# Entry
Amino acid sequence: MGNGLVKKRIARYGAGKSGGYRALVANRPGGPWFFIRGFAKSEMGNVDPVTLKLCRVTARHLLALSGDALADAARERKLKEVICDSQTQERNDQAAPADES
# Structure
């Protein structure tokens, strides 16, 4: 799709990929993945040209950020890191402070 933007097909539970969801994500080999936009295929079959252009510009800007800039954006809550690695998630769960209520 250009500028590191990729469309991924995501299966709907019990229905498979063809009638499922689509996600526009940005990535460079060996780098982080950025979720740009998601939608049900039934909601929008193809991405309209204006949305596609905006997503490409967003992808280009995100992929140009340095590691320090990404860390700053996460700290300032401009970006949110999503961790899907079960081992990493287990480490984060163990490190989380106990609920004091």
User: Anything to note?
Assistant: The longest helix spans residues 49-64. Helices lie at 49-64, 67-75, 86-95.
